[in-house]
Amino acid sequence: MQLLTIILALGLALAQSAAAAPTEANQLQSRAVNNLPPADQFIVCAGKPDSKGKEGAKHRYSRALVQQAVQKGIDNANKNKQVNNFPHKFGNNKKLIFSDACKGKQLWEYPILRGSTRGVYTGGDQGGDRVVFVINGDPAKMTVTDGTYCGTMTHEMVTTKGDFQICPVEW
């Protein structure tokens, strides 16, 4: 009987400590992301081309998924952690037009994944879509507080390999 009591007490203690430990999703939610589109709108990226080069089905990202991807990029930058070279600074050499809130600031990019269960990039194939954001704070000093969403872009259906095009916000 005493052994059963000890086992139950240990199990309860483990359950309480696991419940008290913050999950990765909770940690991501603690980073504020400014400048997101309204909740009733979606970011729409070009579809992957078929074998004849014709655009496939477009992909829609919700505000919540975009926010999670930006939060993950900010969080990884603050931890000086890269997954397959992401997040990294985005030079915008092609002068894509992002939000006015991001003009003149250092841009960063991080993958956002297609598919209802994928979303936030944690490794492997990064796909062709990226969120672009500004980090408020200094990742080198690990003083990042939050970020500003600038836009979403895709490699799909561009004329030159490696180029991007903006994914517009739609209803």
UniProtKB/TrEMBL annotation:
Pfam families according to UniProt: Ribonuclease
Name of the protein described by the UniProt record: ribonuclease T1
Organism taxonomic ancestry: Eukaryota, Fungi, Dikarya, Ascomycota, Pezizomycotina
Catalytic activity of the protein: [RNA] containing guanosine + H2O = an [RNA fragment]-3'-guanosine-3'-phosphate + a 5'-hydroxy-ribonucleotide-3'-[RNA fragment]
Annotated signal sequence range: 1-20
Similarity comment: Belongs to the ribonuclease N1/T1 family.
Keywords: Disulfide bond, Endonuclease, Hydrolase, Lyase, Nuclease, Signal
Residue intervals passing through the bilayer: none
Organism name: Immersiella caudata
Domain of life, source organism: Eukaryota
EC numbers: 4.6.1.24
Gene Ontology MF: a single term: hydrolase activity
